Amino acid sequence: MSKKTPPRKPSVAAASPSLLTRYAAQLKAHPLLLGAPQQGFILALANAAKQLAVHTWSGVEKEAELPFSLDYIAVRNAAFLGGCCMAPPLYCWYQVLNRHVSSNLYKTAIDQLIMGWVFNTYAQFILAKLNGDNFVFSLAMVRLVLLR
User: Which of 139, 137, 117, 113 is nearest to 125 (CA)?
Assistant: First the structure.
């Protein structure tokens, strides 16, 4: 006689976390290692979308019938700016801010009144250097940053 094995009951396994949940956990565990490429990707994608939007809604292609051509240098510069020049200093800035300031209201005020100006100037400097331009800190540049 052969032994019959009892039928297996389907196991109720815990649902595995979604890809987004696992990524969020990894991002929390390694904020700079994953945050820098993420920031670079987001800025590159935003730059490409901006180029497409400007081309589409400016009416240039209707008048001259020019095909859309992506400026890969601008996309590369945006990715570099986000991944290498923005993410590390911002990560350090927010670590210092979280360590020394407890109130969210004060954090926001300090961030917008101090770091906003410093960081916008820094980003404009990096972009000017990436484009091969001279960086000039002027009243016109301050107005441009204020009006953005």
Answer: 137
Is pTM beyond 0.85 here? no
20: nearest Cα among 38, 4, 40, 2 = 38
* pLDDT tens digits, one per residue of 53-81: 887 777 655 556 667 788 899 899 999 98
d(CA 135, CA 89): 20
Cβ atoms < 10 Å from Cβ of 59: 9
Residue pair 97/110 in contact (Cβ under 8 Å)? The answer is yes
Considering only the C-alpha atoms of the chain, give the largest distance between any 2 of them, rounded to a whole number of Å.
96
The one-letter amino acid code at 51 reads Q
Domain boundaries, the chain: 31-147
Query: CB of 80 within 8 A of CB of 130?
Result: yes
Torsion of CA 88, 94, 97, 103, to 10 degrees: 180
What residue spans of 59-115 are helical by DSSP H? 60-64, 72-80, 87-100, 104-110
Both tokens of 97, joined, read 């801010």
**CB-CB contact of 38 with 91 (8 Å):** no
